[in-house]
C-alpha cells in the first residue's frame, strides 16, 4: 500500500521516457543517441534527488509523528536548502563540465552536438 505511489511514479517515468524516445526517433538515430546520453546524466541527478527526498520524508514524518514542531521546521528548512544547493551544484557542474561528461560517456562529435542542445 505504501509503495503504490512510488510504483505509479516509476511507471509514469518509464512511459514518459518511452514516448520521448518514440517522438525523437522520428528525427533520426543521432537524435536518439543524443537524448539517451543526456538522459543518462539526468537519471544520475534524479537518483540523488530521490535519495534526498526519501531521507527528508523520513525525518519530516518522524517529526510530525512526535509532534515536535521545532524539529519539523528544522528538517523542512534543511531539506529545502539542501535541495536548492544540490540543484545549483548540478546545474553548475552541467554548465561547466557538461561536454566533458558526455565525452567520458563515449559521445561522438555528432551526438555530442545534439546532447548539448
Automatic annotation (TrEMBL):
Keywords carried by this UniProt record: Membrane, Transmembrane, Transmembrane helix, Transport
GO molecular function, one term: antiporter activity
Protein name in UniProt: Probable multidrug resistance protein NorM
Transmembrane feature ranges: 12-37, 44-64, 76-97
Job of this protein: Multidrug efflux pump.
Family assignment from sequence similarity: Belongs to the multi antimicrobial extrusion (MATE) (TC 2.A.66.1) family.
A Pfam family of this chain: MatE
This protein's GO CC annotations: plasma membrane
Superkingdom per UniProt: Bacteria
